[in-house]
Amino acid sequence: YSLLLLWSATLIWAFMRAQRLPTRRAWMLVGFVGILGVFIHRLGALLLIGAGVAWLLNARLRPRWHWFAASGLMLASAVLIGAMVSGLGSDRAATGAYIPAEPLDALGLTFTRFSLDRWPGDAPLWWLLPWLLLFGWGMVALLQDSGLRVQDSEVAVRRTARSLLCFFFVPLVLFLLQLSFTRLYEARYLIVLYPAWVLIVAYPLWKKSGFRIQDSEAALPSAARAQASFAVAPVARGVMQGGLVLAALATSVLSLVQPRFGLFSGNPVKEQYREAIGVLASRAHPDDAVIIHPSYLRPLYDYYMARLSADAAPEPISFADFKQGQADFGKREWETQKRAKLAGYGRGFLLIAPDHARTVDPPPLAQDRYGWVGLHFQYSREQGTWPCGIWGFVGVDLLCQEYPERSISGEAIVPQTQQSATFGQNIALLGYTLKTTIAEKPGTYRAGGNLPIALFFDVVTQPEEDYSLFLHLCQNCDAPPPASFDGQPLEGYLPTSTWLPGKPARVDTAIALPADLPPGRYQLLLGMYRPGDETPTARLRLDGEPHLGAERLLLAEVIVVGGENSEFRSQNSEFRRRGATPGCSLSDGTGPCCSRCLLAGSGAYCFGSNYRATGGSATKPSTWRLPIGLRSGVASAGIWAGSGRAPRSTRSFLPLISLYLAIRSRRSSSARSRGACGMWRWCMRWRYR
Are 436 and 286 a contacting pair, CB within 8 Å? Predict the structure, then answer.
């Protein structure tokens, strides 16, 4: 719809220009822009018919041709209304989150939306007054100018006024006619009218200022020569215009800072996909089922997950059969799809935009917030599963569901690492599964990503208290941990007071690793405590080995490597390595050599720091050390000479390095001091697949 708005403004500009300068090139531009609108959105046809009517009113045609053109426009209008009634009024549209509105209701809704970007009742009515007066004044002025027939010099004014009225009223009337049949309204459907609306509101100001629209030798006559819109003195009219403009600007500012609704109010008013996906990114395991609903949220998921986590995001699941036109897709069909797509998972997340989802998955009952997909997660306990979190944001919700056994298949989930320990002489740890986020390196995790773990517990007797657990990742474990998890099991939805003997509880959780976490080896510690107790005895005493102190169990040692630079992240990609990984060296076996590596758009360029073009050995370096923050990739075949005549296969590579260094010179000391790859004797490129 943003593109449709841009196209609408461009078409009106091109048409007005062609009216002033009726050259073949100008009208060809109008035709080209008009054809583009057909491929942008079907609603662009409304404005195209308005352009046709404007052309017909201003064209000098023989009566016969005039009648044929008018008949063609009437036929096109009838076909368009029929198509809109068939599309918007079908079952697939009736299931959506549309506003049931009569034509008069639609006028009020559109006026309020265009003026203040509000729905009726969200803002005081008096805020609409300056906009109503400006619009009314503009309409009166346009109607007066559209009937001017006194002087030839006013023909341009008449054409402009008539065209602007056609661009506004013809699409509006056609839309209201279909609305009388469908009663389905959305403000965005009339976005094609907004440029014409703005011009109508500003029209009285143009007439007062004497502003000229100049193009080559042709120009509109000054407004000083036009008849005044109102029979009032010029000074009084100027004061009225200034007052209305100031009032309109004041209401615009008030709408921006209005509590709850204003963009600058400090309250969230736009759909919070970034916040919701941020919560998901900090908790997701690589083997989780992540459902996005409706399916067209996929671009947002890909965009934010790639920027909020250094780990590859789980491939999302969507239900394509929930789409417009599937009015008979009910509970039975949903159960079939669910069993096919969710089988084998141990936990699932649902990222759902309720208002959008109801257009394809309508709630079964009027009081329901979600359709079948959302209800499956909302009522987890009723299905014998564990809820593990519900997060509500503006326009989007995130729901979590944990399965005691693998979904659908019923296969038992057991810990990969058996470890016995008891907390508080009652809560027994059975083991854990430390999940892998870097496929080729189990036990290694990226800074900026997650350390996902599943903990398995049982109890001797049902606990009387709700305990919390903590996971610490530390090198110096006597100091506060640089990364940790602290909270109740499953976000408090599976409190320890509900655990029963012989019914093992699984807690899937994750430690969010800071992006600046130093690389190295870390110890992973587990403990439990009373959340409301601030005394030193809050932690439950531990009976198990190995341990640090009397309350912390050592689970494992893990390796943390530098996270990826966000500009290099590639969603759901598999990276292969050949002979080197970040923080390691590439060597041909002839001996050590120092080098420097700089990040580039497709990888990194490495430069031998003791091989200068102006002197030193001409032997290529034997070892190339890759920076810690570089992800695994594939070394390009060969080493490229930095000066002299390069091999033919690499000549085109050297200018790219020089250009890259020139661009990155402010970010790298080595680039500042040397300036180009040509000053190095040897260069190597590290790229990705």
Answer: yes
* Average pLDDT along the chain: 77
Length of the chain: 689
On whether both 151 and 32 belong to a single domain, the answer is: yes
- Domain assignment present for residue 215? The answer is yes
Pairing mode of beta strands 552-561, 444-446 = parallel
Contact 128, 112 (CB under 8 A): yes
Three-state DSSP class for 265? coil
Q: Does residue 51 or residue 205 have the better pLDDT?
A: 51
Contacts of 222 (CB under 8 A, 6+ apart): 210, 212
Peptide bond into 316 cis (omega under 30): no
Structure tokens at 610: 């003791």
Select from 579, 581, 525, 577 the least CA-distant residue to 555: 525
Q: Is the pLDDT of residue 359 over 90?
A: no
Task: With beta carbons less than 8 A apart as the criterion, state whether 672 and 666 touch.
Answer: yes
Please measure the distance between the N-terminal and C-terminal CA atoms of the chain and give it in whole angstroms.
36
At 488, which CATH number? 2.60.40.150
Q: Residue 225 domain-assigned?
A: yes
pLDDT at site 520: 93
Residue 351's contacts (CB-CB under 8 Å, 6 or more residues apart) are: 276, 277, 280, 290, 291, 292, 293, 297, 301, 316, 396, 397, 398
Please say whether the beta carbons of 398 and 391 come within 8 A: yes
Three-state DSSP at 620 gives coil
Going 69 to 74 to 78 to 80, the CA torsion angle's sign is positive
Angle between helix 155-182 and helix 2-20 axes, rounded to 10 deg: 150
Look-up: residue for tokens 């068939």?
Answer: 86
Q: Supply the pTM of this predicted model.
A: 0.66
Query: In sequence order, what are the residues at sequence separation of 6 or more whose Cβ sits closer than 8 angstroms to the Cβ of residue 132?
Result: 111, 115
pLDDT range class, residue 221, cuts 50, 70, 90: very low
Q: Are 13 and 164 in contact (CB under 8 A)?
A: no
- Phi and psi at 386, nearest 5°, equal -105, 125
Structure tokens at 400: 């979590």
Domain membership of residue 407 (yes or no) is no
Tens digits of residue pLDDT in 498-511: 999 999 999 999 99
pLDDT in tens, 586-625: 333 333 333 344 433 334 444 433 332 223 333 444 444 4
3-state secondary structure of 621: coil
Number of domains composing the chain: 4
Q: Coil, strand or helix: which one is 89?
A: coil
Domain encompassing residue 288: 273-402
- As given in the structure block, the two tokens for residue 379 are 């009522």
- Strands annotated E in 448-545: 450-459, 468-474, 483-487, 505-512, 520-529, 542-544
Question: 359 and 445: one domain?
Answer: no
Are residues 86 and 22 part of one domain?
Answer: yes
SS3 161: helix
DSSP-assigned letters across all residues of 456-469 = EEEESS--SS--EE
Beta-carbon contacts of residue 428 (< 8 Å; ≥ 6 apart): 420, 421, 422, 457, 458, 459, 460
Q: What are phi and psi of 356, to 5 degrees?
A: -80, -35
